[in-house]
Amino acid sequence: MTVPKNALKKWEKVREYALGLPGATEEHPWGETVAKVNKKVFVFLGVDDGSYPLGVTVKLKDESAHAHALTLPGAEPAGYGLGKAGWVSISLEEKGAPAAELLCDWVEESYRVIAPKRLIAELDGH
Fold first, then answer.
1. Are the CB atoms for 3 and 45 separated by under 8 Å?
2. Residue 2: is its pLDDT beyond 80?
3. Is 33 strand, coil or helix?
4. Domain range for residue 71?
5. How many CB atoms within 10 Å of residue 11?
6. Domain count, the chain
7. For 55-111, what is each residue's pLDDT tens digit?
8. Residue 89 counted as domain residue
9. How would residue 51 be classed by pLDDT, with cut points 50, 70 and 90?
10. HSE-up of 31 (CA within 13 Å, CB side)?
11. What whole-number percentage of the chain has pLDDT above 90?
């Protein structure tokens, strides 16, 4: 299965953005790519090898962002009970998938929910 180029470009932009946030690190638990801050995941990036559809999973506390994300094609509350805590899985391969800029905004929101205050202050200081 090949990954659509535009979906891969978005995925790469989102990954690069996430890892550029203060204190962010990349790890590969369960063979997936995740970005963590303070040892806690703030975005699940899944796999980019084409074995699964490309997507990102973020935690959206803001009700309007959360509601908007769930209206997108292929978006759904995250599995393993994470959906109840505000996590949303967003497909990058569906027609009508969000632009990289919006995805980066959501990654930042997810980061702000999880990051310690000192790193958020560092982010705001830039």
1. no
2. no
3. strand
4. 5-115
5. 22
6. 1
7. 999 999 999 999 999 999 999 999 999 999 999 999 999 999 999 999 999 999 999
8. yes
9. confident
10. 6
11. 87
Residue 13 and residue 91: Cα distance in Å, rounded?
15
Is residue 94, in this structure, part of any structural domain at all?
yes
CATH assignment at residue 63: 3.90.1150.30
Residue 1: per-residue pLDDT: 62
Q: Is the pLDDT of residue 52 over 90?
A: no
Residue located via tokens 């959501």: 106
Please give the torsion angle defined by the CA atoms of residues 87, 91, 97 and 100, in that order, rounded to the nearest 10 degrees: 70
Residue-level pLDDT at 48: 84
Indicate the residue type of 16.
E
Residue 4, both tokens: 């659509």
Is 120 a domain residue? no
Q: Which amino acid is at 26?
A: E
Residue 123 falls inside a structural domain: no
Say how far apart CA 33 and CA 38 lie, in whole Å: 16
